[in-house]
Amino acid sequence: MINLKINGIPAEVEEGTTVLNAAKSVGVKIPTLCYHPDLTPFASCGMCICKQEGNKKIIRACSTPASEGMSVITNDAELFQVRKTILEMTLSTHPASCLTCIRNGNCELQTLAAEFGIREIPYAPNVSDAPIDDSTPSIVLDPEKCIKCGRCVQVCQELQGVYALEFVGRGDKTTMSPAASLRLNDSPCVKCGQCVVHCPVGAIHEKDQTDEFRMAVADPSKHVVVQMAPATRVGISEEFDLPAGTVSTGKLYASLRALGCDTVFDTNFGADLTIMEEGSEFVKRLTTEGSVLPQFTSCCPSWVDYCEKYYPELNENLSSAKSPMMMQGAITKTYYAQASKIDPKDIYSVAIMPCTAKKFERGRDDNMKSSGYDDVDLVLTTRELGRLMRSQGIDLKEMHEEEADNPIGEYTGAGTIFGVTGGVMEAAVRTAYHLVTGEELDKVEVNAVRGMESIRKGEVDIKGTKVRVALVHGLANAKPICEEVLEAKRAGKPAPYDFIEVMACRGGCIAGGGQPYGTTDETRAKRIEGLYEDDEHSALRKSHENPYIQKIYGDYLEEPLSHKAHKLLHTTYEKRPIYKA
C-alpha cells in the first residue's frame, strides 16, 4: 500500500494506483476530458494537471502513479486558470452548435465549460471543415466536433482490435478517421459503436432514425410492431435517472404503447427461439461424427462481421442461427401476420436495441428478408428511444406496468440473460442438457460461464459429457481464441473447444454501442446484476419450457432445424473485404 496526501487529506491506496484514482478514493474530483476508465490513460488534454509539494514539475493525474509520501495539490488559482485556458482553446476548435447537437445536455465538454464558467472564447475559431461521414447505416463521424482526445482510436484499436480508426495527419490538422481518410463504410469498421459511447462529445454518434419511427406510427396504413432487447430493459432506466441495473420491463411496454406502437413483443422470445435452434444445432454437431467444431455463437452482428472480415476460414464454425432480433422479425411477418390476419406488407417491424450494429444487421443481406419483406424495418438504440420518450412527454418513472402482447411476447429467464456476457452460453446449456439427456437441469445457474474475465475457459458437464467452452467479450480478445482454433484446424488436430461465445462489447449487450453514455465497469456490474435478478424471478428459466415456443413449433415451425425453421431462422456467411476498394 502507498500513503500520500491529496490536498492535505491522508490517502492509502494500492501500489500502482494513479493520482487521479487516489484523489477519487478520498472524495476529491480532478477534472478530466480525454480520460476514460476503460482505456489506458492517454494524457492528451491536460485537464487533470496537478502540483506536488516540493517539486516544480507539473504532473498529469490520469497517468501518474501515486508514490509513497507524495503530497498533491489538485486545485489552486494557477491550476484553475491553466485548465480554463485549455478549455477555451479546445472550444475554439469546436462549433458552438450545442442546441442542435445530439449530445446537448449530455456532453463532457459542455459540462466542463459550464463548471468553469466560460462565457466567451478569447481565441479565433479554428473549426475543421472536413465533411460529415454518414456512409455506414449505423454510425456518423462529424469531424468538426472532434476535440482530438483520441478515445475513439484507443477503443477501436485496444479494446476492439478492429483498427477502423487511426490518427491521420499532424498537429492541428490531425483527424480521427480510417486509414488513408477512407469512408467509414470502406474501412474494417464492424459498427459496434464503442467509439460512440466513449466519445466525450458529438463527434461520433449513432445514425438517428427517430423521425422514421414518428412517421411510421403516424401512418394509418402501417401496423407498427415493436420488439425490445434484453439489455434495453436495464439501459433505458438510466435515461430517466433511475439507478443503474433497474429493470423496467413492464414500464417500457407501457411506454412503447404510449408512443403509438400497435403491438408490443419482446426480443426475449426471439432469444428463447434462438436457443432452440442454436442449441439444437450445437447438439447435432456435438453428437455427429465429422461435424465442424467448435461452434461459435452468432447473435452479435459485430462479431459476425469481424469473423467474416478477419477470420473467414471460421465462417463454417459460426452457428447458422440468426440473432434473436432477426428471428423475431421473421416470425412477426410470417407466423404473427398469419395468426392476426394482417398482410405482412402492412406490418412495420421496429426493434429497440442496445447496439448500433443492429442497424447494419437488419439489411446485411437477403437472408434478412426471409419473410419476403424486410424482416425488421427499423432499429432504434436505447438512447434514441430515450429521446423519443422525452419528446413525447413520457416519463418512464411514472408509467404503470403492462404486459407484452402474445403469441410472441412471452419469455423465460434464459432469454433475459442473453444481454450478459456468458448469457447465451448459459441459456444454451440449460436447454442442451435437456436435448442430450431428456432430463431437466436441476441447478440452472451455470457458474462456469459467469464472470467478467475477458477470456474465460472451462468445462460444462452434461451428465458425463464434458463440453469444453470458451467465452470472450471485447473483440480484441477474440483474436487469440480464433488463432488457437485456426492453428488446430490447419494442423488437422482436434478442436480445442466445443462451444465458444463471443460478444463484441465488454460485459456483453448491457454495454452495447447504443446504451446510455457513461458506461464503466461499475455500471456494467449493476446492469448485469439486474438481468440476473430478472432471470431468477422468472417463473420459467429454460427456453424449451416456454409454452409459446412449444406452440410455435407445434403450429408452424414443426421442430428445431426443420426445413421451415431453416428458411426463416437461419442464415449463411461470406468472406468480406477488410478494406473496400
Question: Biggest sheet: strands side by side, in what order?
Answer: 2-1-5-3-4
The count of helical stretches stands at 19
Q: Quickly name the level 1 CATH class of the largest domain.
A: Alpha Beta
Shape: globular
Distance between the termini: 54 Å
Structure report:
With 581 residues, the chain is α/β, with parallel strands linked by helices. It has three domains: 2-75, Ubiquitin-like (UB roll), CATH 3.10.20.740; 90-206, Alpha-Beta Plaits, CATH 3.30.70; 267-346 and 362-373 and 398-569, 3-Layer(aba) Sandwich (Fe-only Hydrogenase (Larger Subunit), Chain L, domain 3), CATH 3.40.950.10. 35% of the residues lie in helices and 13% in strands. It has helices spanning 19-25, 77-92, 108-115, 151-159, 194-198, 210-218, 232-239, 249-258, 267-287, 301-310, 324-340, 357-361, 382-391, 413-416, 423-437, 478-491, 521-536, 547-557, 563-569, and strands spanning 2-6, 9-13, 49-52, 55-60, 71-73, 139-141, 166-168, 175-177, 204-206, 223-228, 263-264, 295-296, 347-353, 378-381, 455-462, 465-473, 499-503. The strands form five sheets. It has a five-stranded mixed beta sheet with strand order 2-1-5-3-4, covered by helices on one side. The chain has a four-stranded parallel beta sheet with strand order 11-10-13-14, with helices on both faces. A four-stranded mixed beta sheet has the order 12-17-16-15, covered by helices on one side. Helix 7 crosses helix 13 (382-391), helix 9 crosses helix 11 (324-340) and helix 9 (267-287) packs across helix 15 (423-437). The longest helix has 21 residues, at 267-287. The model has no long low-confidence stretch (mean pLDDT 96).
